[in-house]
Amino acid sequence: MNKENLAFGKRNFILLAIGMAIIIIGFLLMTGPGSTETTFEPDIFSVRRIKVAPAVCFFGFIFMIYAIVSKPGKKSEDEVTICQK
Questions:
Q1: Domain for residue 1, yes or no?
Q2: CA–CA–CA angle 44, 45, 49 (5° rounding)
Q3: Which of 29, 23, 30 is nearest to 62 (CA)?
Q4: Is 3 a domain residue?
Q5: What is the pLDDT of residues 34-82, one digit of tens each?
Q6: Range of the domain at 13
Q7: Is the per-residue pLDDT at 18 higher than 70?
Q8: What does the H/E/C string look like for 31-52?
Q9: Count of structural domains, the chain
Q10: Counting Cβ atoms within 10 Å, is residue 60 exposed (0-12), middle (13-18) or buried (19+)?
Q11: Rounded to an integer, what distance in angstroms lies between the CA atom of residue 17 and that of residue 19?
């Protein structure tokens, strides 16, 4: 398979991995104990679970969109001349 035909470059894949890690961190921030029928857990309304975690996930999704939209790095002149031969 030729690397020229790939839609994403190495930089895009790295940015996608970073974005996915940020989203996973956001979902991990949302976890915690839940309320049951007999007990109420006030932690379900904490700032971390209601405001911080969704903001982190949102930032991760925006970062992944940027990773998809950004163009792969430009080839150096040496690579271009080698490909033309």
A1: no
A2: 75
A3: 23
A4: no
A5: 888 888 888 889 999 999 999 999 999 999 999 999 887 666 555 555 5
A6: 8-84
A7: yes
A8: CCCCCCCCCCCHHHHCHHHHHH
A9: 1
A10: buried
A11: 5
